[in-house]
Amino acid sequence: MLNKLLLSVAACLALLPTTRRATAAETPNIVVIFADDLGYGDLGCFGHPTIKTPNLDRMAAEGVRLTQFYSASPVCTPSRAALMTGRLPIRSGMCSDTRRVLFPNSGGGIPASEITMAEALKDAGYATACVGKWHLGHLPQFLPTSNGFDSYFGIPYSNDMDRVNDAPKGRESFWNPKVEYWNVPLMRNLEIAERPADQTTITRRYTEAALSFIKENKDRKFFLYLPHSLPHVPLFRSKEFEGRSLRGLFGDVVEEIDWSVGQVLDTLRRLKLDQNTIVWFTSDNGPWLTFNEHGGSAGLLRDGKGTTWDGGMREPSVCWWPGTIPAGQVSAELGTTMDIYVTNLALAGAAKPTDRHIDGYDLTDMLKGKTESPRKEVLYYRGTRLMAMRVGPWKAHFITQESYTGNNKAVEHDPPVLYNLNVDPSEKWNVASDHPDIIAAIKRAAVRHKETVEPAPSQLEIPLK
Ligand code: MG
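YS: structure for the whole thing
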């Protein structure tokens, strides 16, 4: 009998995957904090002269500040899809050249066939919660609780959608925003809990929900995804933050998000979970520059949201895991939000999907300061088009296009426009004529990349029935 039992145990063990899985003792809790439209230059620790972000500055001082870290798209929906799937949006259909993001009248969303970060971590035994802006589809089958999250609390799409007809026209309603101008829902799981969402308290309430989730799950592994609705316009902040910042309303909003980050980290410290939790902070895309002082700043990077200039996709990013990530690092190694997916799965001991192309890399050793980044390339997509590609320090633009203003026509370049981003982060000096060999190499790399891409049907063009 005992022999038989031992044999069946041995048989079961033989069926286990042979790849090494982290043991429960070494798998950290995972927190991903995602700002909306926060620019590369909007944090104190990324050089903003008047916005005060002491909590993010401390997080950076205790962890690693990532100075060349990218999103996978310069707009919301595709960027979030890439973070959640580890894949370029063109592979999941979460992009489009006609409708750049999902809208309340969209009928599409993240396909069920995608393996979200939450689904993978839940399978690895994590408690999972999404608190904040989802924007991967607002119909029930697309919402977080249908995609690996045990719970959801938040505004399911952008906070400037559902504008009511009698709100001031054009940008007028943004310059002096009132909650009632945007009839956006605040959802709890699949139900609408409040409409319009009181956006003045949204950052505070997201924070409270996040802290509750951490406290409730302090004795087990958890994954908290905290995508803030702000500082996307319209800008709102709670009473406590009114008029606090020298940078005006936008500064107040960023400073409230900084407060929120401090609350999360303080709670982890208080519960003695700080040594066993990895926290990422980054943004979905660059600043919305055409909103004047209501938009953020890309610092010394060129342009902003909506474009494939670096200001549209390079994000102010910090990673924190005291005791594991050495304090006070500043890393210019390449990374993207798709690497967050792969890194988190690896840390959790979750299996990385092998039946599909995953675009992320495991950055664990890079974060620990042990190695260079395994990532050597960055792909800059606008909708379905590969506009530019970075290899090492060199970025070649095949197509350039401004976003929301001026000449909005796509301009093709042959030879491509070439910049050395280590030397010229503002993309000012085209050095293509000096480096035909580098251009040829990047062109070949782009061809190799395209051979791996099978564009999925766009989810963003499906109308609501
Ligand atoms: Mg955004």
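YS: worth flagging: The first helix runs from residue 2 to 15.
IM: good catch. Also The mean pLDDT is 94.
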